[in-house]
Amino acid sequence: MTDERDGFPVLRRDVAGIDVGSEEHWVCAPSRTGDGRDVERFPATTPGLERLIAWLQDRRVRAVALERTGVYWIVPHEMLEQAEFEVRLVDTRELRRVPGRPKSDRRDCEWLQRLFSCGLLRGAFRPPETVCLLRTLVRDRATLIAERADWLRRMQKALDQMNVRVHRAVADLDGVTGMAIVRAIVGGERDPHRLAALRDYRCQKTEAAIAEQLTGHWRADHLFSLQQGLKMYDAITDRLADYEREILQQLAAMAQTDDTPPPPTNVNKARMIQKRGEEPLRQALYRISGVDLTTIDALGVETVNVILSEYGPDLSRFPTEKQFIAHLVSRPTRPSAVGSPCEPPKNRSAAAPA
């Protein structure tokens, strides 16, 4: 049943609006008698959120519109879901485009409640809790990979300043030969021929050519920087191994089948997956989705891992490939901090990319 309120058709009365803040949350909900609206503010602490939930339950609220502000919406969203509320996460970019939006926190929560009750709010998709857990692990791992790459660049800078041209002698500083040479230098080796003798048998350059590049101008300060960089590199590598084990455990908990995927039809891709040690991850991703997405050209195991950890194994919320690609293009180049999502739309008419 619908009625009119200030010219807007009210489609739902059992909804509330919450303006989220770092210190306090403003909430607007129907009154107990149902003939008006009440506004209250609650501290952003956990006890404050528990009182907020009890206040909503007392007013028989079933659905809540929650403004996505920074990272402050995450805990209210999770606690409201645990209390079995229907939570609609609202993108602030969408709200800014609605004319007449009030500026105060009190008026803002009233605005949210009004728009939600009239069916004028489009919500963003948030994956299930198990996917959120996986997403946190994958995002943290990506951060560590970027930090490790930064320490690798610092190591290369220290070597360059000593004219030890490891990156000219071998293709990759973090390859088998490159890291063997770096560890020998940190261990005290200075003879370029002994360093060159550490080359992997698959290395295309001769020992003499490598030794030419490894004759350095050794300085204590740069050697110290190289030593510290290697320690940081190794420490992050150890943490990455912890994350990879935890990711595999989370994927195992999400598995929908015990089947093993067939080997990749692309021989080169199969060889690269084995070389990188990604086969266990490929199989785990197959077991949660039921399909081996790495068979798609240009999609590697890591790319599939990111896609499934961001959206979950069910991509049916995107009716067409075109909508999915349009959402990917609309995403920022870097995810927001501390797990703030760039969410896909629930459907074309009821949600916008966030």
Number of E strands: 8
Percentage beta strand: 5-15%
Strand order of the largest sheet: 5-4-3-6-7-8
Report the end-to-end length measured between terminal Cα atoms. Answer: 31 Å
Q: Please write the string of helix (H) and strand (E) elements.
A: EEEEEHEHEHHEHHHHHHHHHH
Query: Describe the biggest sheet?
Result: 6 strands, mixed
Spatial shape: elongated
Query: What Rg is obtained from the alpha carbons, in whole angstroms?
Result: 27 Å
The low-pLDDT segments are: 1-5, 333-354
Task: Write a short abstract of this structure.
This protein is of the alpha/beta class. Helices cover 50% and strands 11% of the residues.
Question: How would you portray this structure in words?
Answer:
It is built from 14 helices and 8 strands. The protein has helices at 46-58, 74-82, 92-96, 105-117, 129-161, 166-169, 176-186, 192-196, 207-213, 220-254, 267-275, 279-289, 301-311, 321-330, and strands spanning 3-5, 8-10, 15-19, 24-30, 37-43, 63-68, 86-91, 123-124. The chain is of the alpha/beta class and 354 residues long. The strands form 2 sheets. A 6-stranded mixed beta sheet has the order 5-4-3-6-7-8.
Helix-strand blueprint:
Elements: E1 3-5, E2 8-10, E3 15-19, E4 24-30, E5 37-43, H1 46-58, E6 63-68, H2 74-82, E7 86-91, H3 92-96, H4 105-117, E8 123-124, H5 129-161, H6 166-169, H7 176-186, H8 192-196, H9 207-213, H10 220-254, H11 267-275, H12 279-289, H13 301-311, H14 321-330
Parallel strand pairs: 3-6, 6-7
Antiparallel strand pairs: 1-2, 3-4, 4-5, 7-8
